[in-house]
Amino acid sequence: MIVRVSVPSRVHLTLIDLGRTGYRRNGGVGFGIAAPRSTFAFAPDTAVDLSALASCGYRLAEIESLTIRLEHLIEQQQLAHGLLLNEVQLPDRHAGFGTGTAVALASLESLFLLNGRDVSQEFLRSHCGRGGASGIGLSNYFTGGFIFDAGRRFSSAPIVGSDATQEVNEQPLEILRVDLPDWPMGVLIPPGASALSLEQEQAFFVQRLPLEEAEVFEVTYHAVFGTLTAVRCGDYDAFCASINALQRCAWKRAEIDLYGQSVRACVAHLTSIGCDAVALSSIGPALIFWARDLDATFAAAVSTYGPSAVFRTRPDNVGRTLTHD
Asked: Global pTM?
């Protein structure tokens, strides 16, 4: 049997509670998009072989870490088969599309399917090793849509990104999941903006966090009373206004500044050619943009950046799809 998995990318608009004190830690808002996608084909095997991930930029240490996690579950759950990753296609790594979570969950779910075992979404969430900073990618894998999660209980431990978290002892608390309206949307991979390494991302978290209390309050207001409420009400104008406001908040502004002028210049140009809103996904560098007249705006963006850097997408309100050969 071959298990094929197709996973929508996730857009992460912002983390929320990154302060010195508070009720919660992290939390965020984000949603799934239909393209680009992460696709996989897994077959049963006598061992766990994920070496194909190297072709998509995975380092040996990352492959070994996920392999060990799956081997531990095979032993713990007394599974008869391992798995072989036959085929894989991923969006650019560390660009803001949530590929790490897609890889971990697709591998874990396929392992159990190949062994004829039914496991719950909660089991997969709690054993995949992801969701250290946010639960948006976890929820997007299963359901797509627009997601608001309230993170975990407050901890005074240093704040780190998901890729720097090896074990997640408390799952992020999902508050609401709703369909994202089908508003015209595109994606730009800014030319000249290289994805950050894991080490650069970790250093950024250490240097910039925690946020001041007023900065946490500001991002919470725009994320909840702005973006979340606008999606729930289908209010495109309020949605775009809140997206732009989030880019001016301390955390997202700092993420954009990591790329010098390259990303900020792209945001300014997209706005000048008719975009109603532009958002950096996660720590970037991918930019998501909205425009009422997407045809004209998209054509102008392609003229400037070329067809390989710009593409159309739409909300994904379904989540991953699974097929068996």
From this structure: 0.95
